[in-house]
Amino acid sequence: MSDSPRWAAAIAVGLLSLICVESAHAKPSADRVERAVVAEVNAIRAAAGTAKLRPAKRLHRVADGHSRTMARTGRLDHGDWDRRVRVVADGRAGETIAMMSGGGRKLARGVVRAWMQSPPHRAILLDPGLRRIGIARRHDGRAWFFTADMAQRLR
């Protein structure tokens, strides 16, 4: 057997591996749990007489990058605000982060409940001046790391 079919197979396996790794890292839109978190927050905002937060893809990408960093390092940390400055128009922004275990709708309710029991997080989530949200979660093998970035206006 010649080496050409072996090389072709090796290249195909390598490309397939690269595609699988890239799709595990690329997360262009919110998943169902992230959408459930936004729905939970918006229900609480509605009960408080505050306008709903509208999802923003650019904020989602910023939140996703931060959640990925927290999952990689295993640390819950707000990190550097520079990542948000690129998408927030007027500097008015807020962020909530959390580390949770579990899954499904209970996970969404649990993270929102934890944020609402913390006065600083509650104030951010209910701030009527914040109108856009990007939320993302990443798993490190043990727990989910959530980031919710909110802004008044985007660039």
Whole-Å distance between the termini?
58 Å
| Rg measurement, Å | 19 Å
Briefly note the structural class of the backbone: alpha+beta
Q: Name the shape in a single word.
A: globular
> What is the element string, with H for helices and E for strands?
HHEHHEHHEE
Strand order of the largest sheet: 1-3-4-2
Overall average pLDDT? 80
Q: Kindly estimate the percentage of residues that lie in beta strands according to DSSP.
A: 15-25%
The low-pLDDT segments are 4-26
Main pleated-sheet profile: 4 strands, mixed
Helix content: 40-55%
Q: In DSSP terms, counting alpha (H) and pi (I) runs of 4 or more, how many helices?
A: 6
- The total beta strand count reads 4
What does this entry show, briefly?
This protein has 155 residues and is an alpha+beta fold. It has 6 helices and 4 strands; from the N terminus they run ααβααβααββ.
Q: Can you describe this structure?
A:
- The protein is of the alpha+beta class and 155 residues long.
- 52% of the residues lie in helices and 17% in strands.
- The chain has six helices and four strands.
- It has helices spanning 3-25, 32-47, 57-73, 82-85, 104-116, 119-126; strands spanning 54-55, 93-100, 132-139, 144-151.
- It has a four-stranded mixed sheet with strand order 1-3-4-2.
- Strand 3 and strand 4 form a beta hairpin.
- The protein starts with a helix and ends with a strand.
